[in-house]
Amino acid sequence: MKLQKTNMTGGDSFTETVYRVFFILIFIALVFTTPKLSSLQSSDIENKERQEEVFCFVGDTGEVTDVQRSVARALESSDCKSVWLTGDIIYPSGISSSKDPEFKEKFLNPFKGVLLKEVPFYFTLGNHDHKKSPSAYMDIAKSNSLINFPNFYYAESFHDICFIALDTTIFDKLYMYKGRKSQISWLESEKNSLREKCRFSVVVGHHPLFSSGKRKKGSPQLSLFLKNHIFGSFDIYVAGHNHVLADEGELEGTLQLISGTGSLPGGSSKEDLKGKFNKENPGFLKLSFTEKENNLIGNYEFIDANSLESIWQNSKVGSGIRTPN
């Protein structure tokens, strides 16, 4: 009996040992695989595309041409969630009132397909829009929910992405000096109020500071304004005026992009540009966003209106609204 009991005890001990080893192996497997799973989940979050935030920019659309029609069709078939106009909405002299038939002929009709998709437009005025009654665009916006133009300059925020729309014509034209001080004061106030919430900042204006195309640079008074208040503070400055699609590179940490081939393209550089892009292709600029490693990345590309293909693309890491050195 004693021997039998000893044999049974030995068997139980072996079984217990097997179970213990089995559970230890399971525990080790869980310990070492759990971080990997967490890492995968974290990576998925970090590289998440923000699909609802796709912004498009097109400029100098103000003439009914074959180019304008192709650009309008391209925007209609795009995934743009909003369209920002970089100015010169109506050639040659803007509109005289909110009832001016030129607005219907040169904007509402050509871009009807985009409006029917309920894609909102955000207006920025160009020098041609200032020639008659620029305030008429505000009257139009009051009666059309898809047209945003509350003032000659304004701010819009989309979560942590901040937009500033400016009236650069009053800085470009020597005789239009009366509104400069109030716009600068407003802009500096907006910078301070938006700085904490903005992870990515975009300024939209009509006139570029510099260019690799035929129009080399802005007027002295415009350049002074842009250098003192825009470049060095914001992530991207998007302009029109030059009838090209262009990536002009950075100055003081601010990237300048031009989208101005909405109806009358021309004026691109004939030189072989290194690290820059400047073409006359009818089309538009598209800006989308990705979260990656705690950074908000702005992915931009120029879309050719005829092929609907990207002809230049790059990215910019957002810094929000900075305090210039």
Chain-wise SSE layout:
Blueprint: H1 2-46, E1 55-58, H2 66-76, E2 82-85, H3 101-108, H4 112-116, E3 121-122, H5 136-143, E4 147-148, E5 154-158, E6 161-165, H6 169-172, H7 180-194, E7 200-204, H8 220-229, E8 236-239, E9 245-251, E10 254-259, E11 277-279, E12 283-292, E13 295-304, E14 310-317
Parallel strand pairs: 1-2, 2-3, 3-4, 6-7, 7-8, 8-10
Antiparallel strand pairs: 1-12, 5-6, 9-10, 9-11, 12-13, 13-14
Structural descriptors:
325 residues, alpha/beta, Purple Acid Phosphatase, chain A, domain 2, 2 domains, 7-stranded mixed beta sheet, 8 helices, 14 strands, 33% helix, disordered N terminus
Describe it for me?
- This protein is an alpha/beta fold and 325 residues long.
- It is built from eight helices and 14 strands.
- It is globular, with a radius of gyration of 28 Å.
- The longest helix has 45 residues, at 2-46.
- The strands form two sheets. The chain has a seven-stranded mixed sheet.
- A hairpin with a 2-residue loop joins β5 (154-158) and β6.
- It has two domains: 1-46; 50-317, Metallo-dependent phosphatases (Purple Acid Phosphatase, chain A, domain 2, 4-Layer Sandwich).
Distance between the termini: 92 Å
Total domain modules: 2
CATH names the topology of the largest domain as Purple Acid Phosphatase, chain A, domain 2
Can you identify the CATH class of the largest domain? Alpha Beta
Helical content stands at 25-40%
Strands of the largest sheet, in order across it? 4-3-2-1-12-13-14
Number of helices: 8
Low-confidence runs: 1-11, 30-45
- Give the tally of β-strands: 14
Q: What pattern of helices and strands is seen along the backbone?
A: HEHEHHEHEEEHHEHEEEEEEE
What's the mean pLDDT score? Answer: 88
Percent range for β-strand residues: 15-25%
Largest sheet: 7 strands, mixed
